[in-house]
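Review form for a predicted model. The reviewer records the input and the model, then writes brief findings.
Reviewer: anonymous (R2)
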Amino acid sequence: MFDRFHISRAQMTLKEGLEPKFNNMYRNIEGDSLETNAIYSLEPDLTIYLNTPIDTLINRLNINDPKYEFRHNNILSSNGYYEEAFEVLSKRNDNLISINGAQDPRSIEKIVIDAIIKRNILNRKDILIDDQSV
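Model under review:
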């Protein structure tokens, strides 16, 4: 699983001035926090932070978009929180990578594929399904 939600959730928590509580990052269908030991099995195999420079993000916006101002302000006001979230998460999970999102898509694809191979994500043996290792 590749995940952006993990870092976005941490970003939102930090933006509220709270320390991310990783046992509250995931909830069951009823909205209850999952057991702490279940959290680590739900963490994504790889989280990718597209660390794109602010000017690149702004230049990608369409000035004729009715939500241009909203998106422009969101980019300016939230970027630091994403950087902080990546820093906080990377201290506890080595399956996070930061990629410069200004690169061409083929370069980004190569970095992601290399990360998958390096971390042996497609052949993990530590995940249990029905008490059997896969």
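Findings: The chain has one domain: 2-133.
Further findings: The first strand starts at residue 2 and ends at 3.
Recommendation: see findings above.
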